[in-house]
Write a structure and sequence with these properties.
The chain is α+β, with helices and mostly antiparallel strands. Helix content is 38%, strand content 28%. It has three domains: 162 residues, 2-Layer Sandwich (Nucleotidyltransferase, domain 5), CATH 3.30.420; 91 residues, ATPase, nucleotide binding domain (Nucleotidyltransferase, domain 5), CATH 3.30.420.40; 71 residues, Alpha-Beta Complex (Actin, Chain A, domain 4). It contains 13 helices and 19 strands. The longest helix is centred in the N-terminal third of the chain and has 16 residues.
Length: 343
């Protein structure tokens, strides 16, 4: 047995975490994904005491009195509020450790490919301070590729587009290394914001992020729909009178509302293709590319990218879980995947 395998065989608990802007997922060796919660913390401003975390805290967004704040401590995929992130990680790990015999925990965390050294240190320090013994980082597109069963060890180009809440990660992976990557800070949250801005500008109606996210999931499409369906009924606050107002808008207008961030995501895919050597382009024409992350479920996005790039696009079966599943596989077989971790 190699020294590497002996070293990592000493530790008894293997975790993987996808610490995302929108959701945090945790994977435990032998059990799979054991936690999937919104990355939100509700805090009492007077005492700095945590009131709620995850699903319960998300209910507070837009509904808090002045003495309570509902915070998303990660912005654009990285830690924006260290103390709140630490409290959130501690809470989630306490949940998963409950009723489980855990010692010397070891953790792999998926991070954006554009993460800075300062941001890396913040992630690692937050994990150390809640009792994790060893922390390893893996770039999200690499984790997504592993979680999507791509042959990353082969001398072939594997293209991953991971669209999360805060970042879109575009990467070409070959021989267990990243040949090209771009981390674009436009993703699911920006799509929500574009819906909010559109309704404010065109209809003078204000809605919150929860309502915008619901519209995105239920009604947004990036392609014209043959069956346009019934108009969407939206209840918001009239920006002039301040009273509730119900409007009905055609579904095609939601496509118009989200066009700017969708175009930015597609442009990042095109930039990757423009910069690739011909051999990689040939590989991609043969194998296609994969879409992962919550944004991959946006209706028509795979077909739109196919049309604009002439490359086949596949949405993985569980796009929300790709990063955490890939991180979990990496920690379960660190001898095989030791090359994919970053410093």
């Amino acid at each position: 047995m190699s020294f590497f395998k002996k070293l990592f065989g000493l530790f008894s608990t293997h975790f993987a975490m996808d610490l995302g802007t929108a959701n945090t997922l945790i994977y435990l060796k032998g059990e799979g994904v054991i936690l999937n919660e919104p990355s939100v913390v509700a805090i009492d401003n007077s005492s700095n005491k945590v009131i709620a975390v995850g699903k319960d805290a998300k209910e507070y967004i837009g509904r808090t009195p002045p003495n309570i704040s509902a915070i998303r401590p990660l912005k654009d995929g990285v830690i924006a509020d260290f103390d709140v992130t630490k409290a959130m990680i501690k809470y989630f790990l306490t949940i998963v450790k409950r009723d489980r015999k855990i010692s010397k925990p070891k953790l792999v965390v998926g991070v954006p490919s554009g993460i800075t050294q300062v941001e890396k240190k913040a992630v690692v320090d937050a994990c150390f301070q809640v009792g994790i013994k060893d922390v390893f980082l893996i770039e999200e597109p690499m984790a997504a590729a592993i979680g999507s069963d791509l042959p990353i060890e082969m001398p072939k180009g594997n293209m991953v587009v991971d669209i999360g809440g805060g970042t879109t990660e575009v990467a070409i992976i070959s021989l267990s290394a990243t040949a090209y990557s771009e981390s674009l800070r436009v993703a699911g949250s920006e799509i929500d914001e574009s819906i909010i801005r559109y309704l404010q500008k065109k209809y003078q109606v204000a809605i919150g992020y929860i309502a915008a996210e619901k519209i995105k999931i239920e009604a947004a499409s990036v392609l014209p729909m043959e069956d346009k369906g019934d108009p969407i009924s939206i209840v918001g606050k009239d920006m002039f009178t301040g009273i509730p107002r119900n409007i009905k808008i055609p579904r095609d207008e939601i496509r118009e509302a989200i066009e700017e961030p969708v175009s930015a995501i597609i442009d990042s895919v095109k930039r990757a293709l423009e910069k690739l050597p011909p051999e990689f382009v040939s590989d991609l024409h043969e194998a296609g590319m994969v879409l992962t992350g919550g944004g991959a479920m946006l209706k028509g996005l795979n077909k739109r990218i196919e049309t604009e790039t002439d490359i086949r696009v596949r949405v993985v079966d569980d796009p929300l879980f790709s990063v955490v599943l890939g991180s979990g596989r990496a920690i379960e077989d660190m001898g095989r995947y030791k090359k994919v971790f970053i410093n």
